[in-house]
Amino acid sequence: MTAPPFILSSTSLVEYSGYWAEHPALFVAPAREQDPEKRALAVLKWFLSTLKQQYSSRNEKLGSEKKPLNPFLGELFLGKWEDKTGEIGDTVLISEQVSHHPPVTAYSIFNEKHKVRLEGYNGQRASFSGRTITVKQIGHAKYHLDSFNEDYLITLPSLHIEGLVYGSPYVELNKSTLIQSSTGYLAKIDYSGKGWLSGKKNSFTATLIKDSNPSQVLYTIDGQWTGDFTIRDARTKKDIDTYNAKTNQITPLVIPPIEAQGPLETRRAWGKVAAAIEKGDYEITGAEKSKIENEQREMRKKEKEEGREWQRRYFTKVEVDDKFQRLADKAGVVAEPEKTGGIWVFDREKYLKVKAEEGAANSVPVPE
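User: That's the sequence. What structure does it adopt?
Assistant: Structure tokens below.
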């Protein structure tokens, strides 16, 4: 959707991948759990802890939801969450815009100390009806634990933008999402919001079951994904844990300084646009934004004339993702490659090649 400059955020959509791991301790917590049932619960808790950052944090910082900058093909956002204690280890983020038509962002987040990896991709389709903008997210995420050779398939929530009439837009999640594990545990999260007569904003209920005994609920979680929620053992009816999204502090993502970034890295590429937005200079915002967009159109035109395709730096398009398909069959989930420009996977060979090139340039050896 084309938006006028005055409702634009100064942040590109490619940066949103970083909201998955702003609580690194929760991100790696499942790797420390020996019991598969409790690991599945820890993955569910971590996922729920990401929702406030992914869908509400910008509203709090800016006063209302703004439309992010639409990334260009090949745009990159790179960084890491540093661990000063040595207990968690650094967690690395790689985010890349792998498709422009349709717009799709792919990401890989990994922690080498605990051998935890998350990768996925997503696109959005927005529609407007009445007083609400509805956004359907297309794609999925895969969470992997090396120590247990265990995988989790995570589907993405649909959302709608409320508060447009009052000039204070905010995100509300709707429908449901699933987390299917390779060990046979299935979590389902149902989202709801504040209605005209009842309900609370940003509410949800979640259940965890085992595929082999779907009638028995093992755990339930309910509350608000922007506030606090309670984890309950459904068999004993006892509360076993609580979480407060408002008080749980995030770990800031560390990114290279602008002068050390490459021309495709988002903060450098959109620097003039972001500065103009922050100043409220919408004339310069529109001019600088158009400049980037026109350059991209020329690049695509030239590629087409020369019969070549833009080479993704860290990700590769595949016909079939076997790891996804095994879990998707269990959960009744289907890939929609026609809506995301393909099925995208993190390419470790490409990553190692980039690291080797960087190492050669800086005389730094490539890590194992």
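The radius of gyration is 21 Å.
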